Amino acid sequence: MLVDRRELCWPNAVLNFEALLFLRPFRESSQDRYSRLFPPAPFPSDVEAYCEAVTALGESMIDDGTRVSDDHAEILLDAGYTYFGQLLSHDLTKDVSSVDEAWQKDPEHLQNLQTPKLDLHVLYGDGPDHSPELFEDDGVRLKLGGSNEIGTAFDICVAKNGERLLADDRGAENMVLRQMTAVFARLHNLAAKQFRPLSKCRTSLFARAQRQTRRQFQYLVVHDYLRSVLDTEMYKKIFIEGKTEIEWHSFSIPIEFSAAAMRFGHAMVRPNYLFHFGKELFLQDLLGKKSDRGPLQDDQEINWGFFFQGAGPENTVTSRPIDTRLAPPFQHLPADLIGTPEAKCPFARIVGHPSQLAVRTLLRGAGLRLPSGQTAACACNQEPLTEQELTTNSVGDETEQGRILRQAGLTNETPLWYYILKESEVRRNGNRLGPVGSYLVGETIHAALRSDPQSILNQPDDCPPIWQLPDGPSRIYGFSELFRLAKSM
Question: Global pTM?
Answer without folding.
Answer: 0.92
